[in-house]
Every structure is written in structure tokens, then in C-alpha cells.
From TrEMBL:
It comes from the Bacteria. This is Heparin-sulfate lyase N-terminal domain-containing protein. InterPro entries: Chondroitin_lyas, Hepar_II_III_C, Hepar_II_III_N. Keywords: Lyase, Periplasm, Signal. Its main location: periplasm. It comes from Streptosporangium pseudovulgare. Residues 306-480 form the Heparinase II/III-like C-terminal domain. It is found in: Periplasm. Residues 38-223 form the Heparin-sulfate lyase N-terminal domain. Signal peptide: none annotated.
């Protein structure tokens, strides 16, 4: 909620409604729940260097003090002075025991994001506890937030810095800080969000986060007595198309980049076509809106990895008949572990890997052609991430749910493809060039063919089937199946969901699945192609 000050100096723009929900009694007793981890006993005298779980996110949240801000919000809702007294004691203890640049102070205490998230807590508290200690700390926070050397321009942290500087500037009557925050906010939004609404941080989850935080920012601007810049409002609105297209039929965001697989964004009103290509590097397609059983797929291309992106170019995900089929390694956490590093690597995604070649991180991928019809879409992508040109064609057929993928590299090289299946699926059968997976009556069949330059495709046997570990949410994992193809210069993979195994026939230049033709190569069968802008 937003409240105005009853005291001297500038008004209070309190963002207490944005603080996380807490168990007031538990926090008052010294137990806090942070970063999705079990409660930690901090006691009445907090050790501000405590790190009970060895987690970076936990330490950031401890020093952000938003959990203490929840006590201020509880006081404002109920009028009970006890939560406010405890909040004041916690904040003032933090201020006294965490001076900046003193040896022994936790490095997280004055990390730029901790400062940005903590400053609104101090503003809310200052409406009720307007002491020199709190006011001096507000001034110090304002100076840091205004420092251009510490500002994260075009980053979600920068947006949080701007929101914090705005409310601190209003509270202290520093109009220059207030106005700087709004100017930076607008410039950063135009840098971070393109005209199609794609956030350059390369994870749909951050598109959702920035949309939500911009909503907080716009309300704070209005409560400060300023007009919302139209350019800023326009970039926030543009994000809705990106988030909407990145939302799967089950209501969850596609776990691309640092996007948890269990995140459900709000539903935005839309009048969008079912297939959308975003020039920044995304293809999202579905058979219908607002149908939980719709087919859905995603394909990645575009600029090299940055910020919250993964090395997922040429990677695909696939849903059919209301269930996920192909998934990715996903987002686990921000911790610096081997598993987290793996989730960002090509091997955690459904991609082609050039055998014996070294991967070059940060390589851009181009979408070179596409064909789109109501029941079938085909896309061609290419890059040189392994030092040779690798090309992937993706066909999605909706008359008979299936995804066909043709991977190729020049003569003298070979490619193998990786396929990560939803954790609900287990291997039921294997034979030459075929792997059948299932869950109850559900079946998904993977078929692979070597495609010579002349002559019909032939079954490609020798698939490797190995256990994998998929991140299903923050700090959560599930076992899954990964299928690794044999090596070949040109390799066709069919992913065919259904209740039974499909009937497949092969001819020269054509594979037929339950009567539905799949041309080889995949592109060109629809009579024309449209090159992409990138």
C-alpha cells in the first residue's frame, strides 16, 4: 500500500504492499524464511554475517531487510505497535552494525541490489520512526543510489535502484534525486525492452519481473505528484506481448534462460496470432489460445548469451496434448555450483552439438528462413558456434502432433543431438533408431534417421539413453531421461506424441507419419520462404 507522511520533510511513498508476506509472530521471535529456504533462527540479536545455508540469495535477502519491512506493513494494517517496535530495533541494529567500508562488514550489506531493495524499507519505517539515525542512513542510501558508477543501466537491478532513489528523493525533499530516478528509469526501459516487448536479459521470467516492478514504479511516480512518462508506460505495455507468447498452455512460463519452470505469470488481454517470431531471438507457436490442451513450441536464436540467458541457441521445447514433451535443464538457482553451470551450457538444452569441436560461447544465431501455415510451420536457423556452420530446420505439424528437426553440418563434420524429456516420461522400449517413452497410457516416440545427400533417409541406430536432472523450480530438481543421438552429417529427428506408436514409412525425400508427410529437407515444401530480419 502507499501512505503519505505525517511528519516533516517530504512525503512518504511507502511500498509496503510490495514487501513479501511474512509470519509476523515468527519474525518477531527471530525466525525468518528467505529465498525459498527453511526458516533460520536469527534470535533477538542478529548476527549480520550469518550464512546458515551457504546461499548467495539468502545473504542478499537478509541484508535487503524486506522481511523487516513486512513488520512495518503489519503495524500499518493492524495498528499493533509490537511489529513496528521490532522492525525499528532490527533496522537500527543493522545500521549501527553494518557501516560501509568497515572491515568485518558483510560484502552483501552494501551490494548494489541490497541497497536498492533496502532503501524503500527505510522510507516506510521513517514515517513512524523519524530518528537522526534512520534519516542519515536514508541520505547515505540516496547518495549510493544516485552514483552513476554504481548504477546498473538497462538492468532489472537498475530499475530497483531507480524505484528506491525516487522514494528516497521524495522523502528527503531531494527533487534532483527524484527527477534523476524518473529520467534513468525511462532511458533504461528503452534500452532493455525493444519495440516488440522483448527484454534483453534473455529470460521470460525477467520480462515478467520487470513488468511487475515497472507497475510499482509507475504508481510511485504518480504518488510522488509527477506525470508518468508516456515512453516508460509504452515500454511496460510492450512487455505483455513477450510474456504472453512465452506462456505455455499450462499457464507456466517457458523455462528459457533463468526462468523457473513453475512460474505462472498474470494473464494479459491479447489479440495475438498463435505464432510469433520476435527478432530478438524467439519463436513461440501454439495451436490455440486459452486451451490447456493446445500444442506449443519454442525455438531460440538471436544475439549471443548475456545476463540471464543460457547457451540455448537452436534449442527447442515442445508441448502436445496438454502435456510437456521436450523440456530443458531449466533454472535452479544463482549459486555457483557445477550443476548451475551445467544448466546454462548447451548440453542442458535440446540442441545439435558438433562432434569433436569446441563450443564458442556467446555466438549469435540467425533465423534465415521460415514458412508459416495454419497447421504447419517450418524454420531454418544457422550459426558457427562450433567453428563450422551448423544448420537446424524445425517443422511443427499440427494435423498429427509432431515435431521434426533436421540438423546438418558440412561434409567432414558430424553432429549429434540432445533431447531432454519431461520428468514424467520413462523409457518403455528401444530399438534401431527408435526410443519409446511413456507415462501411463501416454506415449512419445523418438525416431532418428541419417539423411544422405542422395537416396532415402535410413534409420540411425545407436541412441544413448542416460538419466538426467532437470530443474523444476528454484532449488528443486527431478530425474529425467536424455536421449543422445548417434553422430551423422545430416540427422533427422521426429518427436511424435500419442497414445500408440506411429506408423512410419520412408521414401526418397519423404517420411510419412500416420499418413502425414514430412519432406526432407523440411523447408520449401509449402511453396516459398520468408527470410527473417536477423
Amino acid at each position: 500500500m502507499f501512505r503519505r507522511a505525517r511528519r516533516s520533510c517530504g512525503p512518504v511513498v511507502c511500498l509496503s504492499g510490495d514487501f513479501p508476506a511474512i509470519d509476523v509472530e515468527e519474525v518477531t521471535r527471530g525466525r525468518v524464511r528467505l529465498a525459498g529456504l527453511p526458516p533460520a533462527d536469527l534470535g533477538q540479536e542478529v548476527d549480520w554475517r550469518a550464512d546458515p545455508y551457504g546461499r548467495r540469495s539468502w545473504m542478499l535477502n537478509l541484508h535487503a531487510l524486506r522481511w523487516a519491512g513486512g513488520l512495518v506493513a503489519a503495524h500499518e494494517r493492524s495498528g499493533d505497535p509490537a511489529p513496528l517496535d521490532r522492525a525499528a530495533a532490527l533496522v537500527e541494529d543493522w545500521i549501527r552494525r553494518n557501516p560501509r567500508d568497515r572491515p568485518g562488514t558483510s560484502s552483501w550489506a552494501w551490494a548494489e541490489h541490497a541497497v536498492a531493495l533496502r532503501a524503500p524499507v527505510l522510507v516506510c519505517l521513517s514515517e513512524h520512526v523519524d530518528t537522526p539515525l534512520v534519516r542519515d542512513s536514508l541520505r547515505e542510501h540516496g547518495r549510493l543510489l544516485a552514483d552513476p558508477a554504481l548504477y546498473r543501466h538497462g538492468h532489472n537491478h537498475g530499475l530497483d535502484q531507480d524505484i528506491a532513489l525516487l522514494v528516497v528523493g521524495v522523502r528527503l525533499g531531494r527533487d534532483a534525486w527524484r527527477d534523476l530516478a524518473v529520467r534513468r528509469m525511462t532511458a533504461s526501459a528503452e534500452l532493455a525492452i525493444d519495440e516488440e516487448g522483448v527484454l534483453h536479459e534473455q529470460a521470460p521470467r525477467y520480462g515478467h519481473y520487470v513488468h511487475r516492478r515497472l507497475g510499482v514504479a509507475l504508481r510511485a511516480i504518480e504518488r510522488s505528484g509527477l506525470a508518468v512518462p508516456p515512453r516508460l508506460a509504452a515500454r511496460r505495455a510492450a512487455l505483455e506481448a513477450y510474456v504472453t507468447h512465452a506462456t505455455q498452455p499450462d499457464g507456466r512460463l517457458t523455462p528459457i534462460g533463468d526462468s523457473p519452470a513453475d512460474l505462472r505469470p498474470p494473464r494479459f488481454a491479447h489479440a495475438e496470432p498463435p505464432v510469433r517470431v520476435f527478432a530478438a531471438g524467439y519463436v513461440f507457436g501454439r495451436t490455440a489460445w486459452d486451451d490447456p490442451r493446445a500444442a506449443f513450441y519454442s525455438i531460440r536464436f538471436g544475439p549471443g548469451r548475456r545476463l540471464h540467458g543460457h547457451e540455448d541457441h537452436l534449442g527447442v521445447t515442445y508441448h502436445a496434448r496438454g502435456r510437456p514433451v521436450l523440456v530443458e535443464g531449466g533454472f535452479h538457482s544463482y549459486e555457483r555450483t557445477g550443476y548451475v553451470e551445467w544448466t546454462r551450457s548447451p548440453e542442458a538444452h535440446n540442441v545439435p552439438v558438433v562432434a569433436g569441436a569446441r563450443f564458442r560461447p556467446g555466438t549469435a544465431t540467425r533465423l534465415t528462413a521460415r514458412e508459416e501455415g495454419p497447421s504447419r510451420q517450418v524454420f531454418r536457423l544457422t550459426d558457427d558456434a562450433y567453428g563450422v556452420v551448423r544448420t537446424r530446420e524445425v517443422l511443427v505439424e499440427h494435423r498429427r502432433d509432431l515435431m521434426a528437426v533436421l540438423d546438418s553440418v558440412p561434409a567432414g563434420s558430424a553432429v549429434r543431438s540432445l533431447w531432454h524429456f519431461d520428468p514424467s516420461l520413462e523409457v518403455l522400449a528401444r530399438r534401431d533408431g527408435v526410443v519409446v517413452l511413456g507415462d501411463g497410457e501416454r506415449r512419445v516416440t523418438l525416431l532418428q534417421f541419417a539423411v544422405p545427400q542422395a537416396g532415402p533417409p535410413r534409420p540411425a541406430g545407436g541412441q544413448g539413453v542416460r538419466p538426467g536432472l532437470i530443474a523444476t523450480g528454484h532449488l528443486r530438481t527431478a530425474e529425467s531421461v536424455t536421449v543422445v543421438s548417434p553422430e551423422a552429417p545430416r540427422l533427422l529427428t521426429l518427436i511424435v506424441p500419442g497414445g500408440t506408436e506411429p506408423l512410419v514409412t520412408v521414401g526418397d525425400g519423404l517420411v510419412t507419419v500416420d499418413g502425414v508427410p514430412v519432406p526432407v529437407p523440411l523447408l520449401g515444401a509449402m511453396g516459398g520462404s520468408q527470410p527473417s530480419e536477423r
